[in-house]
Automatic annotation (TrEMBL):
Protein name, per record: CDP-glycerol glycerophosphotransferase family protein
Organism: Streptomyces tendae
Subcellular location: Cell membrane
Highest classification ranks of the organism: Bacteria, Bacillati, Actinomycetota, Actinomycetes, Kitasatosporales
InterPro entries in the cross-refs: Glycerophosphate_synth, Glyco_trans_2-like, Nucleotide-diphossugar_trans, TagF_C, TagF_N, Teichoic_Acid_Biosynth
Entry keyword annotation includes Oxidoreductase: no
Coiled-coil intervals, chain numbering: none
Family as reported in the entry's similarity comment: Belongs to the CDP-glycerol glycerophosphotransferase family.
Domain Glycosyltransferase 2-like positions: 5-112
Amino acid sequence: MPKLSLVVPVYKVQGYLPECLDSILGQDCTDFEIIAVDDCSPDGSGAILDEYAKRDDRIHVIHLTENVGLGRARNAGLEKATGDYVLFLDSDDTLSDGALSAIRDRIEATGDPEILIFDYARTYWDGRVRPNLRAELLKEKGPDTFSLADRPELLDLLQIVWNKAYRRDFVARTGLTFPPGYYEDAPWTFCSLISTERIAVLDRVCVHYRQRREGGNILKTVSRKHFDVFDQYQRVFDYLDAHEELAEWRGPLFRKMVDHYLTILERPGRLPQDARAEFFHRASADYRARMPKGFTRPGGGRGHKYGMLERDAYTTMVSALAAVKFRQRVKTRTRTALNRSKRGAMGAFYQSQLRLPLDDNLVLFSAYWSRSVSCNPAAIDAELARLAPHMRRVWAVRADNADRVPKGVKVVRVGSREYWAALARAKYLVNNVNFADSVVKREGQIHVQTHHGTPLKTMGLDQQKYPASTDMDFEKLLERCDRWDYSISANQFSTVVWERVYPCSYTTLETGYPRNDVLVNAGSEDVRAARAALGLADGTKAFLYMPTHREYQPGFTPPLDLGRFARELGPDVTLLVRGHYFYGNSSHVNELRRTGRVVDVSGHARVEELYLAADALITDYSSAMFDYAVLDRPIISYVPDWDVYSAVRGTYFDLLQEPPGAVATTQTELLRLLSSGAYDSPETTGRRDTFRRRFCEFDDGHAAERVVRRVFLGEESLPPVVPFDERHHAPTPAQALELVERA
């Protein structure tokens, strides 16, 4: 039997669950088991648990067939626990380094207490850490173990279960279980503390209590479920009635009950407005029914509120709260005036357009900071034209890029009156990055964030860990992300990352990437046309080289000697070089274009056509690898600066260990792979298959259709994803040539 059993209930936490599990599995104390309870989670949390369980036999997963709520999910885990002590950890929280060793050592040093209470700290999205305000109650003073009567102030700690280790035989002896409903911690916490004779404390932060910016916290949910608190305190006082020897705790627990009721009444964002009077009257009834003889109200304003409950004086309470709300409204009006002043800088015209009705049939597209008509927005645009031709589709494009817009595309130039009018009145805004801070998200507008790649490098809030890679204002970033209604995902991996690093209240659509539809649906004529447009003759081997942006390099200097490449690989090989869009055209590459063996395709409008034309891809950390993998053609990772890049920017997995194919860390090694053909072998094919199954999960050629049907046509039932082994993809250049010759 393990020393410690950690019960982890899981529901809609796919963005945080890996970090939670890693914080447990990375502990230096290994004498534990994890009982993870999938509470019928509708997201990918259950699959994440199963994947972790395959890799570590200390993880035991329970999949519930219906959602039962936090309390009963904990009960299910408790039934399976075998450790001497049971701990509960919420699946969006984490253990601090060395927490389990400290807990184990303190348990042993204090002679196996029935309950060990340890400290926690609140952590925030912006990196702030706030200590427990009552941490002084956990000072290790006096006897190692004691009863609650010796230190009754421990009742003033936050009534939570996950800052304690419970001896399992104590839990069994007292018959403790978690009730259903909100505030399920209250009966467990109070009843266990007053029942034990041997408590110990550990003055150490063992849990990092995540303060989620959006969702995941019942305390920020307006609902009648907050009425569950009455049932929870009924259970507490029923327990007292059944244990006369605990009568001394009626007074302290009555005070905790009243404080809890008042907190729910006072905090905005909990009770529906039309339920507040009902809640107050029920709280007042409990007050009068349970008030102990000789009870003395606290002094000051708090005691005044106790008195209002005792008299059932709801009108008086409303008047008191109204005064508080008035002061809050004054502050709000001040902030609103300031915001209006800022918006005034956008211009009177934009302000006037914002007052006009939305145009339900107008869609405004943008891609790569309005540089081009491309990527996922372009694919959605094309599918929208097919499925909803009544929609008017407009693209925002910078003036200096207007000459690159395909014929037939309606454009509004960024900064023009037409641009501001479209931003103000379009029902739909579609972008693969964020619109500017000055854009106002109107009520009724729908913003679709398509993203522009599967992330290898850290993104969003995760970049806070790598300050050398960015000077981003993360608060502003999240304000921009607050405008999203939908976030498009190509795979479960991306979904988990996006939901964690952009913690806002959007809906994730796991549709696949619309821009990759063509890589599935293109035929031999499309492949040959793409090659012909680049001047690639039949029989020419074309390698597409796409190095990514490096924040620590000021310009695009390929980490590859292109002249040597052209010489050593011979006349039948052409290298297509595409610099990252941050760099634009490169004078270095332009010099080599004269050789005819190196073609600069940095300015090519559609990268998907380059994918179709190329026999293989050479890249480093670019998201191109994830898209190109849809084609099931060879991918070579040329990563001479992996150590530097991964340290400066941070990555989500080790590309050297989980590559999509062959790996080279030197130019000599790369040339050897290419000249020998070793880049395309059974081993590299196997790596690519594993990579494709993980990252091309939803790319079956119908992604754009799913987006259009769900977002623009309002359909809930979407075309199902084609099973991976039943999919096809565009033919290779060799296959395309063969098909034409047969015809």
